[in-house]
From TrEMBL, chain A:
The keyword S-adenosyl-L-methionine does not apply. This is Exosome component 6. InterPro entries: ExoRNase_PH_dom1, ExoRNase_PH_dom2_sf, PNPase/RNase_PH_dom_sf, Ribosomal_Su5_D2-typ_SF, RNase_PH. Belongs to the RNase PH family. It comes from the Eukaryota. GO terms for molecular function: RNA binding. Residues 36-173 form the Exoribonuclease phosphorolytic domain. GO terms for biological process: nuclear mRNA surveillance; poly(A)-dependent snoRNA 3'-end processing; rRNA catabolic process; rRNA processing; U4 snRNA 3'-end processing. Keywords: Cytoplasm, Exosome, Nucleus, RNA-binding, rRNA processing.
TrEMBL record, chain B:
One of its GO terms (biological process) is nuclear mRNA surveillance. This is Exosome component 7. Signal peptide: none annotated. Belongs to the RNase PH family.
């Protein structure tokens, strides 16, 4: 059989080796289900945006968020949309992942899969943040929230919700409350317990994932998004309670960061 | 008369209207405050991505009051579906198709099986691709790029619902690990939007998957190791999908203090937030998602999940009965098509 010796004959297509790599750290010591990963939040980090926030989970998830206060909205396309715009403002959410955000191969920023994933996250962010805003105070305008994910180590949507709410509050628009996001998941093992703020590996292995967002002062749930192998309503209710409780515990951290941002601003004045 | 007005006021606030108490479903103080705002307080409309209807304040009140009394505008109770018409095998160029009419909502789903390569992470499984087309036939708002947002929302919801491992047996779609598998393209057409799109689409998708027939193929390998795929000569020699575990979506819309299933467009305009739950025939909830502009009380989410389970199970039984009946008629069935 004639063989071309002049060049290296590799296979026609190649794949990243990470796919076949052995699962590392499969047997981690079980986490305390009540334990929350330390969360760092800081408001007013960007000078150009009306409001901004940075949220980091100790596992490594880093989210940067900017919010722009009421600005003129473009002409609505239809009569119904125009009537709605007259009554209340619009929240527009934009979600971007840095090309180097996740492990493994670099994702191409413009690719369809990437764009779809970003659009889904933006839509989820919008449903979570809209209930916090008093949009009827801003008719004919739009509010813009733009989230940039710098590093993805799990619980991304939850971190983005918290950051978005902080940035909106920091921009000074009128709100009902902050939204606090929290993710949780449960392993495939039937006896596995729910774990709060899972890391990227835990999330990948999980059989059921859930993200909740809470407006703590009003005790209202602004986002619930969960999927996985089936459970009874009681199972989901239990998980929901667990997640909401975690949101209550995270709330003081966000409030504190807002307070600090205000103090910093006053000192600078 | 005065008593009647009192009820009017009480119910009007439940629709959630005054600025700061909209989100609350509780405290006596806020209820007092809302009471004082009275009738003029209802000034909201869900005009999100769905086709919007414009309702006047009294019309909305009428709907909300009705829901409160468990009697809806069309005479249904809060947990009743509208009459649904299901017909499978309506488009001959597909592997499987179904058309569902739920009240005014009219959905056509076609499934086409094509050969493709398995995904690299799952070399021994086929996969499903969803595509939702919001054409301007359904509502003029979908013209141009208008329907895109709704289209992606529906598509991503269905990917999530079908991401659960055992919804469809994907292993049965594999022809030749790493090389060939069946890809099921599920195309959803919205013909008329009359409220409750998600439920209607999920019924249509399940019916279409039930109806799907994938030709049987065999892989022949000669001595040099090259593989050949051979299609069976008999056109009736095909595999069917097991749709027993395919979930149905139940949308529960919060109206006032209660929630309803299968909301019409008008009822959707009165609802600020709804919960989508996907329920399997055994009554397990495989996914939940809140949609809409408002927020929900944790207690009401628990209640909605219970209702979703109950209603979803009944819906599965009813759908399976219809599908089996239609199946038993075989070729003798008179097709209704689009003029029925």
């Amino acid at each position: 059989m004639p063989v071309d010796h002049r060049r290296l004959c590799g296979p026609e297509e190649s794949h990243a080796p990470a796919l076949w790599a052995a699962e590392e750290g499969g047997d981690e010591s079980p986490r305390d289900p009540w334990a929350l990963r330390p969360l760092f939040a800081r408001a007013a980090v960007l000078s150009q945006a009306d409001g901004s926030a940075y949220v980091e989970l100790s596992g490594g998830t880093k989210v940067l968020c900017a919010a722009w206060g009421p600005r003129e909205a473009p002409e609505p396309p239809t009569a119904a949309a125009a009537a709605a715009a007259l009554r209340m403002g619009r929240l527009q959410c934009d979600f971007r992942r840095a090309p180097f955000a996740s492990r493994g191969a670099r994702r191409r920023p413009g690719s369809t899969a990437e764009r779809d994933a970003e659009r889904d996250l933006a839509a989820a962010l919008r449903t979570a943040l809209e209930p916090t805003l008093q949009l009827e105070r801003y008719p004919r305008t739009r509010l813009l929230v733009s989230v940039l994910l710098l590093q993805d180590e799990g619980s991304v949507l939850a971190a983005a919700i918290s950051a978005g709410a902080l940035a909106l509050a920091d921009s000074g628009v009128q709100m009902y409350d902050l939204a606090v996001g929290c993710a949780l998941c449960r392993g495939p093992d039937p006896s596995a317990a729910w774990v709060l703020q899972p890391g990227e590996a835990e999330e990948r292995r999980a059989a059921v994932r859930l993200t909740v967002a809470l407006l703590p002062a009003l005790n209202q749930v602004s986002a619930v998004q969960g999927a996985g192998s089936g459970g009874t309503p009681e199972d989901w209710a239990e998980a929901l309670c667990f997640g909401l409780d975690a949101c209550y515990r995270l709330y003081p951290v966000l409030r504190q960061s807002l307070l600090q941002a205000t103090c910093r601003r006053r000192r600078a004045m | 008369m005065s008593e009647r007005r009192a009820t009017l006021r009480r119910l009007s606030c439940s629709n959630g209207a005054s600025h700061c108490s909209r989100l609350l479903e509780g405290t006596a103080a806020s209820r007092e405050r809302r009471k004082r705002k009275g009738l003029s307080a209802v000034r909201r409309e869900e005009a999100g991505s769905m086709a919007a209807v414009v309702l006047s304040e009294p019309e909305k009140l009428y709907i909300v009051h009705g829901v409160q009394e468990d009697l809806r505008v069309d005479g249904r109770g809060c947990e009743d579906y509208r009459c649904a018409e299901v017909e499978t095998d309506v488009v001959s160029n597909t592997s499987g198709s179904a058309r569902v009419k739920l009240g005014n909502t009219d959905i056509l789903v076609g499934v086409k099986a094509e050969m493709g390569t398995p995904k690299i992470e799952k070399p021994d499984e086929g996969y499903l691709e969803f595509c939702v087309d919001c054409s301007a036939n359904a509502t003029p708002e979908f013209e141009g790029r208008g329907g895109e947002e709704l289209g992606t929302e529906i598509t991503s919801t269905f990917y999530t619902v079908f991401s659960s491992e055992n919804s469809v047996d994907l292993k049965s779609l594999c022809i030749n690990p790493r090389e060939h598998c069946w890809v099921l393209y599920v195309d959803v057409l919205l013909l008329v939007c009359g409220g409750n799109l998600f439920d209607a689409i999920s019924i249509a998708v399940k019916a279409a998957l039930f109806n799907t027939r994938i030709p049987k193929v065999r892989v022949l390998e000669d001595e040099e190791g090259s593989k050949e795929i051979e299609l069976s000569d008999d056109p009736y020699d095909c595999i069917r999908l097991n749709v027993e575990n395919v979930p149905l979506i139940v949308t529960l819309s919060k109206i006032g203090y209660r929630h309803v299933v299968d909301a019409t467009l008008e009822e959707e305009a009165c609802s600020l937030a709804s919960l989508l739950v996907s329920v399997t025939s055994k009554g397990a909830l495989t996914s939940i998602k809140k949609v809409g502009r408002g927020s929900l009380d944790p207690e009401s989410i628990f209640e909605m999940m219970e209702t979703g389970k109950k209603v979803g199970k009944a819906l599965h039984v009813a759908l399976q009965k219809i599908l089996d009946e239609e199946e038993s008629l075989g070729t003798s069935r008179q097709k209704v098509g689009f003029l029925g």
